[in-house]
Predict the structure.
Amino acid sequence: MYSRNPHGSQNMRFGNFELVIIRESTFKIDGGIIFGMVPKIEWSKRYHPDSENRIKAACNLLLIKTEQGCVLIQTGLGERWEDKERSQGA
């Protein structure tokens, strides 16, 4: 079951575990890269590209709360961005 906390994050419960999805950041990326062979006419119904064909994407953290403590999972985007990707709003 999902719920939203006062900070806008999503919470979910699995037994004694509470999962909290935390929005770290947003960025823009070319929609064609994300959807590949899916025609733009299809994916643009839900994800509206800007004038440069970019859509909004997000980096999320996962916080797992247990009776023993908390674990924060953050995979990040890494440092392997090319100059072109950096200039596109990453």
